[in-house]
C-alpha cells in the first residue's frame, strides 16, 4: 500500500509533464499557425538559410539558420524564452528539430508549422519575397560620414533577433542629451554588396567614425554604457 501511494503521485507528475510538453511544443496546420501569429507578444522564427528566406518568408519572421549552429544559437539567445515562438522551415523537418532544441534549452512555448512553407503556399497563404533593392556604393556610404562629426553606423537586418533586441538601446542613445553623434542605419539584409565591401561578419555590427575615420567596431549585442563610452 505504501509503494502504491508513492507510485501514483509520481506517475501523475510524469504524465502531467508529458502533457505540458505536448501542449507547449506542437505542430500546427497552416491555418492554425496563421491564426496563432496574429497574437500579441509572439515571435516568428524562420530557421532556413538566408537564400531560402529571401526567396519568400512569412511577414515579420526573424531568421536563425538551423544548419549553422553557431549562428542559430547566437541569434535565438536574443529571443524571449517566456514568449511563444512560432518556427518554420521548408517542409517542417529542420524547424521541428529547432523547436525540440529550444524546448530543451528553456523556451516555454514553441509551435512548429506542419509541412513548412510548402504547406503554407499550398494553403494559398502569403509570403514576402526579396525586394529588388538598389545597392548602395561605397562612395555613397562614405558620403554619409561627415568629416567633422561623430557617427555611429548600425548595420543590421529586420530579420535578425539581436538587431531587434538592440533597437531600444540605440533609441535610448539617440535621445540622450549627453551624447552628440549622427546615427546611420544600414539594412545589411538588403545592402549585400556594401556588407561585403565593409567586411561585415555578423549582424548587428556597430562602427564609430570620428573626423571621417573609423575608430572602433564591434558585432553582436552591446550595452548602452559601452556604446556611449565609445561615442564620447
Draw up the topology in text.
Blueprint: H1 2-24, E1 25-28, H2 30-36, E2 43-46, H3 50-55, E3 62-63, H4 69-76, E4 85-88, H5 93-104, E5 110-113, H6 116-122, H7 138-142, E6 150-156, H8 161-174, E7 182-187, H9 192-197, E8 205-210, E9 213-219, H10 224-231
Parallel strand pairs: 1-5, 2-3, 2-4, 4-5, 6-7
Antiparallel strand pairs: 6-8, 8-9
Please explain how this structure is put together.
With 232 residues, this protein is α/β, with parallel strands linked by helices. It contains ten helices and nine strands. The strands form two sheets. A five-stranded parallel β-sheet has the order 1-5-4-2-3. It is elongated.
Sequence stretches where pLDDT stays below 50 over 5 or more residues: 1-23
Quaternary form: single chain
**Over all CA atoms, what is the radius of gyration?**
22 Å
Tell me the CATH topology of the largest domain.
Oxidized Rhodanese, domain 1
List SSEs in N-to-C order. HEHEHEHEHEHHEHEHEEH
For the largest beta-sheet, the strand count, sense and barrel status come to: 5 strands, parallel
Architecture per CATH nomenclature, i.e. the level-2 architecture of the largest domain: 3-Layer(aba) Sandwich
Considering the protein shown, what is the CATH homologous superfamily of the largest domain?
A: Rhodanese-like domain
- The CATH class of the largest domain, by name, is Alpha Beta
- Strand line-up across the major sheet: 1-5-4-2-3
* Alpha carbon gap, first and last residue: 73 Å
Q: What general outline do the C-alpha atoms trace? A: elongated
Percent of residues in helical segments?
Answer: 40-55%
